[in-house]
Amino acid sequence: MAEGGADADTTVRERVQRRTLAVVMVGQVLGGAGLAAGVTVGALLAQDMLGTAAMTGVPVALFTFGSALAAYLVGRVSQRSGRRSGLAAGFAAGGIGAAGVVLAAAIGSVPLLFASFLVYGAGTATNLQARYAGTDLATPERRATAVSLALVSTTLGAVAGPNLVAPLGSLAERLGLPALAGPFLLAAVAYTAAGAVVFALLRPDPLLLARAIAPAAPAAADGGAPAGVRPAAYLGAAVMVITQVGMVAVMTMTPVHMQAHHHGLGAVGMVIGLHIAGMYLPSPVTGLLVDRVGRIPMVVASGVVLAIAGVLAAVGPGESLWANIVALVLLGIAWNLGLVAGTALVVDGTDLPARARTQGAIDVLIALAGAGGGLASGAVVAAWTFPALGFGVAALTLLAFGVAFAAWRPAPTAA
């Protein structure tokens, strides 16, 4: 390519990257408000409708299974038609699912509740997939920073959502709905608005533009399809899966644990809100550290912090609001470290022709891991105790990270 053409491509790339990040950030603010509903009151709504705590992990598991299916579909649509189409469709499905949860609560239909949680999971998957849109045009040394900007934008909506549980509950009751359906009213509006913003404004599409201006991908040794995935992507996937399991397991049962120790909905909402702040608010610092200090040191940090959070959740007095806050904030920070570092590793380890499809497949694994964590958490607490869950998460985290690093073989990254 001629020097003038390369300079023009660089100028276009930088301009569109700035626009892409702005649009993604607006969409993430709205999407964050949507995802907070299921995290905060999903288990409580199920307990209220089912009359038992034994299946309180089912809603989180269902919308996580739904997010797994949506992650695959959003990844495939993005691979074929670009980020704009995939993300807009995913957010729209999340809005439909949230509206279905409200209807299920209104008429007392458990089957509709479970089906709606599956569809609602599309919003969660799309909210996570949006982080990749910020990396499509980012240079390698700015990838983690781009991820962090997308994630931190989720904070405003995600933190506000849980803290609106009480007023939204009052609004729902005035509308003749159960109080716990209130946050899902917000989710339906927020996800729909996020989809509309992405569909209207994410132009030109960052993934399609990145393909258009990228040099030709290297061919495989046998002359077949372009090279696709390298070891960095596998390590990144492992890190995100492990942190998702641990985070979802403890987070899912914390509202039930707190209610058992006589904390009200307002306190539960505050703890979950601070937990979600821990998940997203440190992102700018995390992104800077991942880009400057390195992917691997931050991966190690995520495992250590996650294990500490599990232990603190186990040993902290259940009646202490501060003990719950500290454990859940550290839990969120551990997830943030793992997600930013893991995402950067995945982008480093994939080539453009296979990137969106691979990212979707990895997010399927993350979602399924979360579903497993959600289901197992309820069973563990019902069979043993909440402290047993915390200690189990800490032990499994250290074991899984050890296995992942034992299999790690570094290789060159993608440009």
Strand content is under 5%
Measure the end-to-end span: 16 Å
User: Whole-number radius of gyration?
Assistant: 21 Å
User: Regions with pLDDT < 50 over 5+ consecutive residues?
Assistant: 217-226
Task: Report on this structure.
Helix 1 (3-50) packs antiparallel against helix 2 (58-81). This protein has helices at 3-50, 58-81, 83-107, 110-133, 143-152, 154-163, 165-174, 182-201, 206-213, 231-260, 265-280, 283-292, 295-315, 321-348, 352-383, 386-406. It is 81% helix and 0% strand. With 415 residues, the protein is mostly helical. It is built from 16 helices and no strands.
Give a quick summary of the entry.
The chain is mainly alpha-helical and 415 residues long. The chain contains 16 helices and no strands.
Q: Keywords for this structure?
A:
415 residues; mainly alpha; 16 helices; 0% strand
Write the layout of secondary structure elements.
Blueprint: H1 3-50, H2 58-81, H3 83-107, H4 110-133, H5 143-152, H6 154-163, H7 165-174, H8 182-201, H9 206-213, H10 231-260, H11 265-280, H12 283-292, H13 295-315, H14 321-348, H15 352-383, H16 386-406
